[in-house]
Design goal:
Elements lengths: L10 E12 L6 E12 L3 E5 L6 H8 L7 E6 L2 E2 L5 H11 E5 L10 H11 L6 H11 L14 H13 L5 E5 L7 H18 L3 E4 L3 H4 L4 E6 L2 E7 L3 H14 L2
Parallel strand pairs: 3-8, 3-9, 6-7, 7-8
Antiparallel strand pairs: 1-2, 1-4, 4-5, 9-10
Helix pairs in contact: 3-5, 5-6
The protein binds adenosine-5'-diphosphate and magnesium ion.
InterPro entries: AAA+_ATPase, ABC_transporter-like_ATP-bd, ABC_transpr_LolD-like, MacB-like_ATP-bd, P-loop_NTPase
Organism: Dactylosporangium roseum
GO molecular function: ATP binding
Length: 252
């Protein structure tokens, strides 16, 4: 059940010839078309591509939220493909963190209760020093007793970031984490994600439409029609924009 990656750097998540087919017959959609990708530990990777290119599907299969039709996915050395639902749930609780566009906080819980919820569900206690570090980094110390409705969008997303980080997951998956934020709050969240990669060695994979958001990543992977068609390392917003324009032309 475990496979060790021997080439290159340690890999936090990996897709090997992954296909995802929805529906059948006339209604069939091939969302992923033989995707191979290795996401290195301690890196910040952005996934970009036109609407419908398979970004969310790739992220959901890598995170064990969705099964693959063919191929294999790994988180760390653990092969997700073929795992039981119970084992998958357990893996998501212990090895994966999520940040969503809509924050997905529980409205009746305080910020602190939201942050600690995944650990409580898993029956784990937070490491006190690490918890304090996370709270200080996201700047939420004086907001811990507030409920989501008493917080701005940017603050709510920082709660979601803290919730993802506090269990020190193998990898954090973020689907359009700044899609609902104004540019200033978005920049705060992106800096925070960037810093958690630099200072804590966190691995982050983020889907985004925004070339500026992608420029915070170490690497950008471009999807089109369910395939990886290009990538950029050390991206600038301009370089990302140029690649995206090329993708749009190719699709015309
Ligand atoms: N549950 C589903 N059932 C049927 N088709 C789906 C489903 N989820 C996604 N798709 C299709 O798969 C393709 C890729 O979707 P998605 O991964 O959401 O793209 P993106 O996130 O890049 O916009 C699209 O054609 C979409 O319509
Ligand atoms: Mg999507």
């Amino acid at each position: 059940m475990t496979t060790t990656v021997t080439t290159g750097q340690a890999v936090a998540a990996r897709a090997v010839d992954v296909w995802k087919v929805y529906g059948s017959g006339e209604a069939q959609v091939i969302a992923l078309h033989g995707v191979n990708v290795e996401l290195e530990r301690g890196h910040f990777t952005a996934i970009m591509g036109p609407s419908g290119s398979g970004k969310s599907t790739l992220m959901h299969t890598l995170a064990g939220l969705d099964s693959v039709t063919r191929g294999e996915v790994f988180v760390g050395d653990t092969k997700l493909t073929g795992m039981s639902d119970g084992d998958l749930t357990n893996l998501r609780r212990t090895k994966v963190g999520f940040i969503f566009q809509q924050f997905n906080l529980l409205p009746t819980l305080t910020a602190e209760e939201n942050i600690l919820l995944p650990l409580s569900i898993a029956g784990r206690k937070p490491d006190k020093a690490w918890y304090d570090t996370v709270i200080a980094t996201v700047g939420l110390k004086d907001r811990l007793g507030h409920r989501p409705s008493q917080l701005s969008g940017g603050q709510q997303q920082r709660v979601a970031c803290a919730r993802a980080l506090v269990s020190r997951p193998e990898v954090i998956f973020a689907d359009e984490p700044t899609g609902n934020l104004d540019s200033r709050s978005g920049a705060e969240v992106l800096s925070f994600l960037r810093n958690s990669v630099r200072d804590f060695g966190q691995t982050i994979v983020m889907v985004t439409h925004d070339p500026n958001a992608a420029s915070y990543a170490d690497r950008v992977i471009f999807l089109a029609d369910g395939q990886i068609v290009d990538e950029l390392w050390e991206p600038t917003a301009d370089a990302v924009l140029d690649k995206l324009k090329g993708l749009d032309k190719a699709g015309e």
